Amino acid sequence: xxxxxxxxxxxxxxxxGSGALRKILIFGNSGSGKSxxxxxxxxxxxxxxxxxDTLAWDKASPPVRTPIHLSKQKIAEFIAxxxxxxxxxxxSDLLELAIRDANEVIYLNLPVADCIxxxxxxxxxxxxxxxxxxxxxxxxxxxxxxxMYSEREDTFCAAAHHxxxxxxxxxxxxFTSNAQAN
Length: 182
What we know:
Layout: H1 5-8, E1 23-28, H2 34-45, E2 48-51, H3 53-56, E3 57-58, E4 64-65, H4 68-81, E5 85-88, H5 92-98, E6 104-108, H6 112-120, H7 132-137, H8 139-147, H9 158-167, E7 171-175, H10 178-181
Parallel strand pairs: 1-5, 1-6, 2-5, 6-7
Antiparallel strand pairs: 3-4
Helix pairs in contact: 4-5, 6-8
């Protein structure tokens, strides 16, 4: 059976008054639609939303990764403070810190070309950039980074995301197109 994001909004479980808790992890390449889907699910099910971008990087220039032990503490606090939640990001090292508490994962495994196109049309992300112009000035670098998703061997790569997905024993979904993820 083909599942898409719109059907997730009507599945049993999650949200206020349903009796079942939803604890969802969303991951995939940059530009795959993680934040968009997380916002939709958060609104539809009254889930608390954690974008891992907000805690993965120190506010330095150039950006430097926050030490894992500090990110781990913030993730643990978020999980402890919220019964229903969605956590999204491309950081497999941080996702692994939350996966034991998740009861559902969504892997946005879109083609690189779709991720690049999505990144080109991404709205301004004020939690990352001071302006849309500043965000767009990084677009060429971001498109190069997105294009290396399958070749990279880091916490952000396709192999790390695939392993997270394969090792998860709960409810899981893999979306391979924008149509499924929207």
